[in-house]
Amino acid sequence: MSFTYRLGWIFFRLIFATYFRWRVFNPERVPAEGPVILASNHASFLDPPLVGAGLTRAINFLARESLFRFPGMNWLLHRWNAVPVDRDGGGAAGLRAILDRLQAGGAIILFPEGTRSYDGNLQAARSGIGLTVIKSTAMVVPVRVFGTFEAYNRHMKWPRPRRVAVKYGRPMRFEELRAEARTCSKARLKEIYQEVADQIMAAIAALEPHEDKQTFP
Question: What share of the chain has pLDDT > 70, as a percent?
Fold first, then answer.
């Protein structure tokens, strides 16, 4: 972690521990090094820092490229390992930046649903994460956040002091589908992207906070 990243990491851990009374489950399932995609459900702006603060390794985040136009914000986002992407996060430049971070051995948070939930329920996965998984060699760790919709959803102006939690699932590898993707037809390739996305979303949905012993941050 850079000095600036560590300061932000400490700040968010303090906020989550006091204002949101957070719980963290199974962070040891995330490898301490090497390329990793952290695939999480998405209900709130709190989700990226929550997923990242539960781990002791530095994480890469996605941020809209428009935010990088402001000098102060540009400086901070780069030091917080933010990856600039377009509004939908599906542009070629954004994908290349994500793959570059993974190729360099980094970990990055991606949201299979693509956007924040409107009602707090899990949404269908989009194929974009499947494309990223297939084009990389990274393992995927499913992650589920709890309580962030109640704490700070898209309908709220200010965060509320609700308990939040984050649980990290067991790593997923997609060697067989990656091998098939190298030689299959374009039609089948699109199916593979969605198949990978659906498998990841199913793994996220299967995570429950009461199954395993809590790890206190």
Answer: 94
Whole-model pTM? 0.90
> Among residues 24, 204, 209, 47, which one has the least CA distance to residue 123?
204
Name, in order, each residue with C-beta under 8 angstroms of 189's C-beta and a sequence gap of 6 or more.
134, 181
CB of 105 closer than 8 Å to CB of 35: yes
Q: Both tokens of residue 150?
A: 């109640």
> For residue 66, what pLDDT is reported?
72
Q: Which residues contact 196 (CB under 8 A, 6 or more apart)?
A: 129, 130, 133, 134, 174, 177
Give residue-wise pLDDT tens across range 202-213: 999 999 876 555
SS3 category, 76: helix
Domains observed in the chain: 3-215 (3.40.1130.10)
Among residues 129, 127, 86, 80, which one has the least CA distance to residue 106?
80
- Which residue pairs from 110-115 have beta carbons closer than 8 angstroms and sit at least 24 positions apart in sequence? 110/37, 110/38, 110/39, 110/40, 110/62, 111/39, 111/40, 111/41, 111/42, 111/47, 112/39, 112/41, 112/197, 112/200, 112/201, 112/204, 113/41, 113/42, 113/201, 114/42, 114/88, 114/89, 115/42
Tokens 């521990």 correspond to 17
- pLDDT per residue as tens digits for the range 158-182: 999 999 999 999 999 999 999 999 9
Quote the CA–CA distance of 37 and 24 in Å, as a whole number: 18
Confidence (pLDDT) at 158: 94
